[in-house]
Amino acid sequence: MLTRKMTEEMQRIQKKLAHLQAEVVALRQQPGSAHSPSPAEAAAMLDESSLDRSRLSPGLIKKLRKRLRITQPELAALLNVSIAAVGFWESGTVKPRPEMRARIIKLRSLGRREARQLIEEAAKATPVPKRRGRPPKGQ
Description:
- This protein is an all-alpha fold.
- The protein has helices spanning 2-29, 39-45, 48-53, 58-68, 72-79, 83-91, 98-107, 112-125.
């Protein structure tokens, strides 16, 4: 009796699993329907009211940077600001301007991989300035 109930339950679970697997395949075949939003899409989903309610303190900026495992220069490149600005924000000397505040809050939705990808894209887009001054010794 018990074995029969267990067999029936196992068959029911297998049918459910097959159904769910078919759904996953169908969703993967639909372009853009079941994917996690890109950083740009995630930023667009945040409305102004959620930005106003969001807390942003020097400690939270530093925690965000540590969670994403990025350095101050990398965060500066990500936000297109100077390294000093990031240091001032984290020390509490200066508060970010409203548009920078919004950008920092939007970064909260990123994961480490997405942040790393954006940093790499920013590095490719930013040209390396030519060095001025005297040539190095030996030339």
